[in-house]
Amino acid sequence: MTILRGIMTCAALLAASAAPGPATATTAAVKIGERSPDFELTLIDGSKVRSADLRGQVVVLNF
Q1: Is residue 53 part of a domain?
Q2: Which pLDDT value is given to residue 19?
Q3: How far apart are CA 61 and CA 53, in angstroms?
Q4: Which of 7-16, 19-28, 33-42 has the weakest average pLDDT?
Q5: How many domains does the chain have?
Q6: Is residue 9 in some structural domain?
């Protein structure tokens, strides 16, 4: 009986840990043709670049 209880406990813990968590994070998608949200990046040399400085230019962001 104690072996069965141990197996059932392990199975319940495994099932609970496999369940997905709540999806609370929301992201705002930018559609083609829309302006990007304002942002500011710090470059390696310490200077800053703002999205407003890049208006009208083609920009590729590499993450």
Answers
A1: yes
A2: 65
A3: 15
A4: 19-28
A5: 1
A6: no
d(CA 45, CA 38): 21
Closest CA to 61 of 41, 32, 45: 41
Instruction: Please give the single-letter amino acid code of residue 10.
Output: C
Structure tokens at 44: 């390696």
Is the Cβ–Cβ distance between 36 and 53 less than 8 Å?
no
- Claim: this prediction has a pTM higher than 0.70: no
As a whole number of angstroms, the distance between CA 50 and CA 54 comes to 7
Q: In a 3-state reduction of DSSP, which class is residue 18?
A: helix
Can you tell me the mean pLDDT for 36-55?
90
Contact (CB, 8 A) for 48 and 40: yes
